[in-house]
Structures are given as C-alpha cells and as structure tokens.
Design brief:
The complex is a heterodimer. By secondary structure, chain A is α+β, with helices and mostly antiparallel strands. Chain A is built from nine helices and ten strands. The radius of gyration of chain A is 32 Å and the shape is extended. In chain A, the strands form two sheets. A four-stranded mixed beta sheet of chain A has the order 5-1-9-10. In chain A, strands 4-2-6-8 form a four-stranded antiparallel beta sheet. Helices cover 49% and strands 18% of the residues of chain A. The mean pLDDT of chain A is 86. Chain B has one helix and six strands, in the order H-E-E-E-E-E-E. Chain B is elongated, with a radius of gyration of 23 Å. About 6% of the residues of chain B have low confidence. The chains are: A alpha+beta, B mainly beta.
Amino acid sequence: MLIRDLVNCRYYRLFIVIFLVLFINLGILAEQASLSKQSISGQLLLDTIWEPVVYLSYIPAFSDMYTMSHEMIIERSEIDNAGNFYFNTDYLPPQDNLYRIHISKKDDPPASLIIGGKEENHLFFIANCTSNVLINNMSEKKPFKMISITGYYPNHALRQVDEIENYIDSMNYNGSAVKKEFITKAIYGKLRFIADTSKHPLISLYALYKSKFESDFAVNQQFYRNYIRKWDNEKSTYFTSFRSQLPLSDNREILYRFLIGFIFLCVGFILSIFWKSRIRNNKRIESLSV
Amino acid sequence: MKTLVKLFAGTLTFMFLLTNLSFGQGTELDLKRSISLSGDSETEEIEIKVEETVLLNINIKSNVKVGGLTIEIYDPNGEKQGNFSVGNQLNSKKSSLESKDKKYKNEEVSGQIEKKIKEPVNGNWIIKIIPNKAEGTVLIRSKQVYNDN
C-alpha cells in the first residue's frame, strides 16, 4: 500500500533522485575515509649528500628530544625518486606522543642528529595510531628549515611554539644587552602563557620546556605548583619526567619528617607514663613489705 | 695613452680598497679543539672567552662507538644554551616502543650542534663534555666575529 502510494506520488522521481544523491555521497565519504588511512607521510626534497631514507623515532620525554640512540628508532622508510616516504602508524599507541623523523648524510651513521644550521636533519611532531600527518619540505639545501606539517591539528600549535622561541635568535639587538634581556624574558613569558592556557597537555608542556623553566622555577615557584596541580591527572611519561625535574618535594619531605618526629614523641610520652607507673608500683610494694 | 694607464690603475686601486672597506667584516677568531674518548667517564669543560663579540658561532661534532656522551653549552650566566646526547641511553625511562631495526644496535652514533649567537653575553662560555664509558671523538670549533668599529 505504501509502495503503491509512493509510486503514484507526483514527487516519486524527486525522491528517487534525492535517494541516489545521498547514496553516492555516502559512497564517496567511505572511499575518502579508506584513502586517508592513518599514516605519517609526505615528500622530502633532498640534496645528493643525504641517504634517501627517513627514520622515525619515539621520544618518550621532552628531555630526550636531543638524544640520539639506535633504540629510539622504531621504523625506517625509503624515500623514492620523487621524495615520497610513508610510515604506517596503526601500531602506535592510541594516546598522543612526540615523535621525530630524521635523515642521515651518506658519510654519517643512520643514528645521527644535527641540531641547528642549514643541515639540521630532524623534525618533531605529535601523532597517535589514528592521526594522519603530512610533512613536506620546500628546500633541498635546507631540508628541515622550510617545512610544513599538516593533517593532525596539534602540530600547528607545536610549530607556533617553535617560531616564538626562534625569534630570540633571529633578533638584532643593536648592541644592547639590556634590550636583549628584556625581549628574551618577554618571549619566555609568552611561552609560559601558552603553557598555562593550552588545553592540549603535550603542547602545554612543550611550551613550558621551551621557556627554560629550569632557570625560572626559583623565582616563580607558585606558577609551577599550580601547573603541577592542574595536570595532576596526566600520567604520561612526559609529565612524570617533568615532575621529577622540579624540586617540589621539599614540602612533602618536611611534612613526613614532622609526622615521624611526632610519632616518636608520642611513643616516648607513652613509654615514660608506663615507666613511671611501674616505678610507683614497685615503691608501693617496697613500702608494704616488712 | 699614459693618461689611460693612470686612469685604469687608479680605478683598479679604488675597487680593491672598496672591497676591503665596504662589507663590514670584522676580525674573526677561530678556535678548534679535538678530544679523543677512550672509555672514560670523566667530565671535561672547555672554556670559550667572549668579549665584545658581535657573533659567536659554536659547532660541536661527536662520534661515539661505545657508551654514551652528553654535550652541554652554558653561557656565562650559567644558563644552558644547547645540548645533545648520543649513545645507548635515554634520559628518561626506556620507551615502550622497541626498535624494529636491531641490526644497527651496535653501530656508531653521531651528534652535531651548531649555535649562532648574536651579541653573546661577555664572559666564559662553557662546553661540558660528559662521557659515560664512551669511545669516540669530539670536535669543537668556535668562531668569534668582532666589530672593528
């Protein structure tokens, strides 16, 4: 009955068209979803001094960013003639972590790290098992100086933090040490502001690391106490490592020492009462005896 | 003819003087030091004295075959201005993701850092070399550019 009503309806052809359009769109969406499979991929234009191989390393803590060892390298990918590389990431942990890709010169071992200069050979980014990260460089001569990372959104904020920090070295201070100090302090203050306001825990902590917190802690302890309290639920290796670097255990140690001292005082007090009552009893017995 | 020769010589002399005066190049001081590590774990400090320098360029390259090595750069105020570590150890706990490429495990590891500091703080810049039973080499180069004006 319903079908007969539908067929006889003047809008029958319109319904068919709408149905077909929806069906085709669903098909296209499904195909796109399968094409944008989770991966870390991209194109790196390289000079002939570089091996056409890119290595992926897992960075478990921000203090390990500039550490290079073979055990950190978890995967390698050949770079084809067009500069394309690809890492499948479905085996990565589901939570966000920091990773690094690097390339090596033909004369250097695979595990080599170059920091600074036009031959800087590595890049950091955040990823997990479902993210899709696309990395493309724009210069063969400076493979990691002019680079874009798209796809997974936290990497945009990561690059912004890097740009703010790099401003310190790129400034001309015209001989004024005071001016340099003011500007440097302002930039570190801005990075602390990002750390304080960012909702992504890794971005927040990354900005704090870039703000040279080690030298700021002594003058700004309350900020760091509040920061630790704010991210108290974060149990990642990044926050565990960060907490261990901060000398915040002083108050707890003082509390423990006070408690131990108080316990010993109570025990001593109870023992003294017990001892006195024993002595009193002995005296009574002596006074009773003939 | 004589006038032409004089004019030519004068022009050449003028151009020669111009190239030596115009590009603002100051005096440069280059220092190079090479350190060989033979399995020791003793920290060594290299001092670079900086005074009225316009540009300080520090380049440190290290190759380690065995053990681990950490390099740290400190300015005269004691603030760390750069660092890297190479070798078998991580600063944090061992990662849960293991390397798939076991064949490279015992091969050499190299690290390099280049720092260019404009108008660096005056005083002694310290490069700390912290080996951990390391066998390898460390090459340190520093270049200071002074403004002759």
